[in-house]
Design goal:
The protein has 427 residues and is of the alpha/beta class. 38% of the residues lie in helices and 11% in strands.
Length: 427
């Protein structure tokens, strides 16, 4: 029997199905309720929120949606939250998804995993389980989550899954509270547990427009310092630049508002049965309680996907877009406008490029390019990184241009915890 590497299979499927406009990747938030109160979270609600509970899709509605998305061509499915196990019937919803042949990834904080749940997952194995670890020490973990005892419950969940040899990996979001323990978490995952680990420092305001999570967001210099402290991330950024290298003259800026897979090969469904282009974008919603998934996918999301840019911003011609993460959803959350550049993302991308020695091609009036109002401060940040020794181990990739693509290095993870439009959970 001929076999094929999973990564190659995934890439082949995405290339072939992109033109067919099939909804290969789905992300379903089963609830936004969570037993933790993390300072950085963009969508957590209290476990006791009766209003939220009452609005959530029922088990029967979940089954109908799963039937419809699988009939439409969905293959990869991410379950996220909130905390997925906050719903007592989640394991039954999950079982129905498996019966429909979906390749399922689970995002969880691990604190609600019991021996019985772990046994059920061992009997009905998912493709992958990702647990978010918020600190290596109890003090740091619980300072971020706000819940005494949550560290021990997370550790218990991790070990219950490892004991059953389930496909587990760990990740974290790097914030001011836990940045000093990121590499201790990495060591714990890789050396003590033997599982993969990834981290990300990208964060968003809350879906309810609160900017509270940004109080613990790292500075651009802190984000880049973490990149430079991790040889693998350095290599991945360099490989990223090499892979997507393109002469400036051949790059044609797109006029499409969306450059991700949202509405093209991916979709998201929130806990209340509302279909959107991704988990972060909640401005345009299609109610699956009133209409079918096929109608929402082929008509509603296709219309959203077809939108064109209306503002000629500095992002249009910027070769750093692949390092930046700017997208309409980020613009909506941070600025209230899908097309307004997010300053934090722009500053971080430019600083990363200067630190790695990538050439930043001219792309219009930009604060962080030579002559711009923020360039001097950015160079001061770069000098501070160099003085600290953070850039001493850097390769010398000077002169390379980054193309205009919306990708991130493999070491990164979507700050939202499940952006299906980015394809992060699918391959």
């Amino acid at each position: 029997m001929q076999t094929i590497d999973y990564g190659a299979f995934s890439q082949t499927m995405h290339r072939q199905m992109r033109a067919a406009n099939l909804p290969l990747n789905g992300a379903i938030e089963v609830t936004r309720r969570c037993p933790l109160t993390c300072a950085h979270c963009y969508n957590n609600l209290p476990m006791s929120d009766r209003a939220a509970t009452g609005r959530e899709l029922t088990y029967a509605e979940h089954c109908r949606v799963l039937d419809e998305i699988s009939d439409a061509g969905c293959l990869w499915l991410l379950y996220t939250g909130g905390e997925i196990f906050a719903r007592h019937d989640f394991i039954d919803i999950y079982s129905h998804a498996r019966r429909r042949g979906l390749i399922i990834t689970l995002f969880t904080n691990g604190t609600l995993i019991t021996p019985a749940l772990a046994d059920r997952l061992a009997d009905e194995r998912p493709f992958a389980i990702e647990i978010t670890l918020y600190g290596r020490t109890r003090e740091t973990y619980e300072r971020l989550t706000g819940i005494p005892g949550s560290f021990d419950r997370c550790m218990r969940g991790i070990h219950l899954l490892r004991e059953r040899s389930l496909p587990l990996s760990l990740k974290t979001v790097a914030v001011t509270i836990n940045k000093h323990e990121v590499f201790a978490m990495q060591q714990f995952a890789e050396e003590e547990l033997g599982v993969e680990f990834k981290f990300d420092a990208m964060m968003n305001p809350r879906l309810d427009c609160s900017r509270a999570p940004l109080a613990v967001r790292l500075s651009p210099a802190e984000c880049v310092a973490l990149d430079l402290a991790d040889p693998r991330r350095m290599d991945e950024w360099s490989m990223f630049a090499d892979r997507w290298l393109a002469p400036e003259a051949t790059v044609e800026p797109t006029q499409d508002l969306y450059e991700c897979g949202g509405g093209l090969t991916s979709f998201a469904i929130n806990p209340y049965g509302e279909l959107s282009i991704c988990t972060l974008s909640q401005r345009d919603l299609y109610d699956l309680r009133r209409g079918s998934f096929q109608e929402g996918w082929s008509s509603f999301l296709r219309t959203i996907r077809g939108r064109k840019v209306t503002q000629q911003t500095k992002c249009i011609h910027c070769h750093l877009k692949g390092m930046c993460g700017m997208c309409p959803a980020n613009g909506e959350l941070e600025n209230g406008n899908a097309e307004t550049p997010v300053d934090f993302l722009c500053r971080t991308a430019h600083l990363r490029a200067y630190a790695f020695g990538f050439t930043v091609a001219a792309h219009g009036e930009c604060e962080y390019c030579p002559g711009g109002s923020g360039y001097h401060d950015l160079m001061a940040s770069l000098a501070a990184l160099q003085a600290s020794g953070a850039t001493q181990a850097m390769p010398a990739p000077a002169g390379r241009l980054l193309p205009m693509v919306a990708h991130a290095p493999a070491a990164s993870s979507c700050g939202s915890g499940g952006c299906g439009a980015c394809g992060g959970h699918a391959n």
